Amino acid sequence: LKYTKHPDQFPDKANYPILACIPSGDSMEGLLFPDTYFTPTDKGDARYMVNKMLGEFDTMVQTYHLDTLAEKNLPAAPGATPKCSRQLNSIYQMVILGSLIEREVVFDADRAGVAGVYWDRVYIAGNETAGFLGSDPSVEYARDSQPGTTIFWKDLNDKGVNIAPDSPWNTYTHKYWPPTAICSPSLADLQAAANPPQNTGNFYFLGKKDGHIVYAKNYQQF
User: Fold this and answer.
1) Does residue 54 contact residue 38 with C-beta atoms inside 8 Å?
2) Average of per-residue pLDDT values in the chain
3) CB–CB of 142/173 below 8 Å?
């Protein structure tokens, strides 16, 4: 936790340029790749494991060319002032978008569609959503990041605009991408986020009771 919550204290941070994209005071959330790791018992300390997980993230990015796709498809959000290079910032935005997909989607077939809705909301100027993602999981993360929280990811009991409205992770009250990922996205999430369908005309989606997603082009239809 010391290393992951305080990246500047991680002894091997220089090996992972993506860490420079993390906003000051924030954690490695989203960059510790979720997988099964077989660990020698004589090497299983915290430094070893953080290196393994960050290294696996880098491996996935390179193996599946996610860096190239993200740089092509995810320019800096309007008004953003990235802390890191253009390519690294695109990768970091891919992680943020992937984490939103992870918390929204049940079935792999729906990942691309949700990625496309969020992409359109951020990059198509003048659309009805005005750049607000309106992601309920982001509000849950904003709420659950408050000191003293012990139970996480409970359903919202009010409109998103009324819950932790001052938090930059509340995407009902703050435009464009939240500052960090809200969870650890899978490879499928990252692939959808790196190469989302663009200009689909869908600016809204709804998860049905069976977990599948349906889409709408405007709020009235939604």
Assistant:
1) no
2) 95
3) no
